[in-house]
Amino acid sequence: MLDVTGIDVPERPELMHLTRSAAQCIENQLVLASPHNLVLHLHWPLSHATSRESEGLLCVDEDGCVQAMNSTARQMLGASTQHSSPGNNNARLHLSELFATSFEHVLDARWANQALTVPLWSGLQVQLRSSRSGKYAPKSSPVAVDTRLNRQVGALKAHEVDVIRDTVTQLKGNVAAAAKKLGISRATIYRKLQKKR
Predict the structure, then answer these.
(1) Residue 48 within a domain
(2) Range of 121's domain?
(3) What count of other Cβ atoms lies within 10 Å of the Cβ of residue 81?
(4) Cα–Cα distance, 16 to 12 (Å, whole number)
(5) How far is Cα 67 from Cα 45, in angstroms, rounded to an integer?
(6) Of 1, 15, 154, 162, which is the most buried if we count CB atoms within 10 A?
(7) 98 dihedral zone (left: phi>0; alpha: psi -120 to 50; beta)
């Protein structure tokens, strides 16, 4: 859980970027934890996407039925949320309902280790790269994902301490006023600033 509430200061773009990035990493980890045989990585053509957190992720079983997808994939494919929740077996969506190409074509590209440009039923196209990760096994190592997430959470915590320190400095060391302005207790301010030393 990420908690960035209670700080009564102007919104900072870097804090919002870190929060969005950490939330996307958490969502991707949950999607990849669902039982699946194949992971499809989606990008818009010519998007030059480099961040793995920002790609569309689609986990499918051996029959081509969608097991889970992240919010980026839902937006790209125009899929409803009822089909994308991990473990939702009541509304099984097949890849043929999303892509205007056969599941076998996607599998052929996987075995040839090729990226594909795949047409959607809307007339748009997406670039698709697939990876076979084995049933119940996410492609990314949980340790690698946790390490990346820990770095992002650490950066958020460091930023939080900077905001607390700046507020106390602006109020000329008045911890009670800073606590009131930030919506946190004085004990929290002392604890956070002491940890930073």
Answers:
(1) yes
(2) 19-139
(3) 11
(4) 7
(5) 24
(6) 15
(7) alpha
Identify the sign of the CA torsion 30, 34, 37, 43. negative
Using one digit for the tens of pLDDT, what is the confidence trace for 29-75? 888 888 888 899 998 887 655 556 678 998 988 888 999 999 999 98
Among 96, 117, 139, give the residue marking a domain's end: 139
Distance set, CA 5 to CA 2, 9, 11, 15, 188 (Å): 9, 11, 11, 12, 14
* Cβ-contact 19, 53 below 8 angstroms: no
130 and 163 share one domain: no
Last residue within a domain, chosen from 116, 139, 162? 139
Length of the chain: 197
Tell me whether residue 148 is in a domain: yes
Report whether 125 contacts 70 (CB < 8 A). Answer: no
49 shares a domain with 82:
yes
pLDDT digit string (tens) for 97-111? 998 888 888 887 777
